Fold:
Amino acid sequence: IDMRAVADMADVGGADSRGHIFVFRYGAVVLFDVAPDAEQQFLIRIADFVRDPLPQPEIETALLAVRPDSEEQVDAAGNIILRERTPERLLLTATVLARSAVLARDEARIAGVFDRIEPLITAMQTRGKVGYRIHHVMRQIGDVLAAQHRMVGRAQIREKPDVLWDHPELDRLYGRLEAEYELGDRARAIEHKLDVIGDAADVLLNVVQDLRSVRLEVAIILLILGEIVLTITERFF
Structure:
């Protein structure tokens, strides 16, 4: 989404509530207390800013409770407990939910890349060659680079949210939310899979390039032989 985060939007939840919407440039939208009709209207409004929308959106849901006398945490039922309903706390919570949704999307995409690369590896193992054209291999590498760009360049999964610089008192809350949604562990697992896919794609690309080089050399040899045959034919016949 080609937009900055949007926070504390007035009257988006309907006449009886005040909702909050956070929009993240890496394609995630988090809504708190927003009526279904208002949600649909908002998504329609930002549709022109969305690039390469998913066929089916990745949805992450959570129950948020404000309890001034309770400790800020995620309880045994998975509910997020906040002491106050401040924009900073909501932004921090929205960031964690958005990153969790991005991880879920990339986990599914990377699983799909593994499925597409597996036949290539199997072909090398069983037949000693790759039966795919080079653009298939380049497509796998493109998927890997796109996933890496989303994680490192945009979502910045492994980095703490900027809001903590101005509100260090929320660092403990972020730590608990991050642990609950296993952001660090999931990001590390994805990075490891990306490394594996990248190495496999590099090997496959080298194999395909070597194959093309061999074919080119054979074609050149055949052309030279053809020229020799023609020369001999012209001289003796």
Remarks:
- The longest strand covers residues 20-24.
